[in-house]
Amino acid sequence: MRLENKVAIVTGGGSGFGEAMAQRFAEEGAKLVVNDISEAGGKRVAAAIEKAHGQGAAIFVKGDVSKNADMAALARATLDRFGRIDIMVNNAGTTHKNGPMLGVDEAEFDRVFAVNVKSIYLSAMHMVPQMKRQGGGAIINTASTAGLRARGGLVWYCASKGAAIMATKAMAHELAPDKIRVNALCPVAGETPLLPTFMGGDTPEIRAKFLASIPLGRFAQPRDVANAALYFASDEANFITGTAFEVDGGRCL
Q1: How buried is residue 150: exposed, middle or buried, by Cβ count under 10 Å (0-12/13-18/19+)?
Q2: What is residue 189's DSSP assignment?
Q3: Domain 7-192+221-244 of CATH type 2.40.10.10
Q4: To pair with 146 at 20 to 30 A between CA atoms, which of 42, 56, 152, 220?
Q5: Which residues are catalytic?
Q6: Domain segments of the chain: what residues?
Q7: Which pLDDT belongs to residue 194?
Q8: Taking 80 as the threshold, does the pLDDT of residue 209 lie above it?
Q9: 62-83 residues labelled b (16+ CB within 10 A) or e (exposed)
């Protein structure tokens, strides 16, 4: 059990990569706090974890990661139930539709940066003090290959994920004396609800064009990302911090 006696929060845990991470962490002994803005998805995942791993293995806390009050409530609910926070996964994310940069209005821009970047700030404000009191912890930020490999059509999304990566590195540097490790995952587009938005549609032709850019010839599966997250969350990675790890089938080569 690689995460036995650890407590993990996964934002955006009601579907996609977050759901897979929550399930994978639970398989390795962690207690889970599943956060999502979708009550139906989050409750479903938490209930599935409890069914598989026993009553008390997971709770669901609804919340918008871009809102200070919701992130504070997430920290309180976790501590009230489990008494500690060992692993914080800032996974919740969003994008604008693939298209011209001038077609993204200000409200959409603000939404993308609030969910993808401000959420990391708010998470730090509410989770890091607890990790310091405990003597350490692990923070995992879900970034993207789009934060490393720029491409037109997703300009502002790329910018938000580039910010997430640099925040990860700067946080890792500052928090290292407190034994808090901070790493980022950089998945290629995967089989999640956001895939059509990333690609600007979903047809066999669009899929074929995108897949041609991935040397291993397939999209990321949620389990691929969950396995990488599990490593960063575990004590096996206790000398790894400040990395932006590509889970991309070779797309960034």
Answers
A1: exposed
A2: P
A3: no
A4: 42
A5: 157
A6: 7-192+221-244
A7: 75
A8: yes
A9: bbbbbeeebbebbbebbeeebe
Nearest CA-CA partner of 233 in 19, 134, 225: 225
Which residue matches tokens 């004396």? 177
Confidence of residue 34 (pLDDT cuts 50, 70, 90): very high
Beta strands in 119-192 (DSSP E): 137-142, 180-187
Please say if the pLDDT value at position 190 is more than 90.
no
Residue 199, helix vs strand vs coil: helix
Q: Which residues pair with 190 in a beta bridge?
A: 220
Tokens of 33: 């706090």
∠ CA 66-69-73, rounded to 5°: 110
Half-sphere exposure of 180 (CA within 13 A, CB side): 25
What is the per-residue pLDDT for 11? Answer: 98
Q: Which of 146, 94, 147, 144 is nearest to 116 (CA)?
A: 94
CB-CB contact of 128 with 113 (8 Å): no
Residue 19: C-alpha distances to residues 23, 68, 74, 169, 223 (Å): 6, 23, 17, 25, 9
Answer whether residue 49 shows pLDDT above 80.
yes
- Residue 245 per-residue DSSP state: E
Q: Give percent helix, percent strand, percent coil of the chain, each to the nearest 5.
A: 50, 15, 35
pLDDT confidence band for 202 (50 / 70 / 90): confident
Count how many residues are written for the chain: 253
Q: Model confidence over 98-130: pLDDT tens digits? A: 999 999 999 999 999 999 999 999 999 999 999
Rounded Cα distance between 29 and 9, Å, is 14
167 close to 141: Cβ distance less than 8 angstroms: yes
SS3 60: strand
